[in-house]
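The material for today's practical consists of a large collection of protein records. An example says more than a description, so a record of this kind follows:
***
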Amino acid sequence: MHHVHFIAIGGAAMHNLAIAISKKSSYKVTGSDDEIFDPSYSRLKAHGLLPEKIGWFPEKIDQSLDAVILGMHAKADNPELLKAKEIGLKIYSFPEYLYEQTKHKTRIVVGGSHGKTSTTAMILHVFKQLYIDADYMVGAQIEGFDNMVKLSTDTKIAVFEGDEYLTSPIDLRPKFHLLKPHIAILTGIAWDHINVFPTFEIYVEQFRKFIDIIEPAGKLIYFDGDKQLQLIAKTLRNDIVALPYNTPAYEIREGISYLKTNTGAVAIKTFGEHNLQNLRAAQLACEQVGVSSEQFYQAIATFEGASNRLQKIAETATSVAYKDFAHAPSKLQASLHAVRKQYPNKQLIACMELHTYSSLTQAFLSEYAGTMAEADIAYIYFNPKVIAHKRLEPIDPAYVKQAFGGNNVEVFTDSDALVAKLHSHHYVNTALLLMTSGNFSGVNLGELGKELLKIDNEQ
């Protein structure tokens, strides 16, 4: 029996990994954390993995443990971590453990500043439809998958979303540097995580290093419409096979996107050029493990998207509402453009929350210039309390408006005032897009979308 202990088991990725490992017959899983919120709390409880007490308990750490897995939420002076070091236990970070469990498998790793989750989800959806068994790790819930991580002994392929954020409190390498892909995907590079990559050049360098750790004779699937990736592709190792991709041919008819293929038009349930590019990357990855074009198109036609990625939350006869995880400038612009192109004759109301460290840093705000230009009405929200909590300098709403640019932008710092403003509109022939990596300080976006669109049914 292998006994694995999680330090910071309540994290989004960590609790999913804990659940995945607990399903392996010869593994015992325990863990600790100083705070655990839903959905982690309920899911850990359902699987019998919820710690009896909240907090750190060094007495849990002893020689009976085969390994400790350290989450990013833990600090370098965590008492359980210090005890594990003291007695010489093997300490893994999240990505190190994923690699350790799949080092004899073909690893597909999806990296890039945007589209990682969607592209990974597309590959996994196709595999599921074609009964191709694979280990995986993906950054959002996917329809038909009960967990965000799977590890098993009898699979030959592993598909991982490759995050460029830091690995652990004691390992400051980006997570995707530890996954060593045989098949690597890079969707694009747009500056993010300013708190750990203070310049664009430092950020870009992390992707160069990622390519350097591709396994011998590996494949690099990359979006050739990205200038940085074009430059990087010119300096690849001789043994790496480069597979560039771009937007596949498509058309939109009556609000539905169709791929143009050699065997005719294929209707798909996702939309937007960025999602079509993700789809092409997924197709190339699937081809490398033997999936034919015909098989891919048949499977991808039923893909509805990962949770919170242009997810439809409400619809009436004339109007539609989506929520989206978009927060970085490139993601924001891509999502807006997708909705505008999909519904060219509807009024587009776009609402986004500045929520991440980068987006709430004044020096970074200029990166958002013009990103809301395609909206007829654009609302930006941020919570000054979040800025204070992140120990950042206060930002002026007037400066935010100036940074985004355009006469269509209005800035809010009060969530109730924003919701009241959204309620003031009549949603007739309207597309509403709510974008955030948070929840607008406690708003249930699904319920809000239904409330707002219900207005035009009651007029």
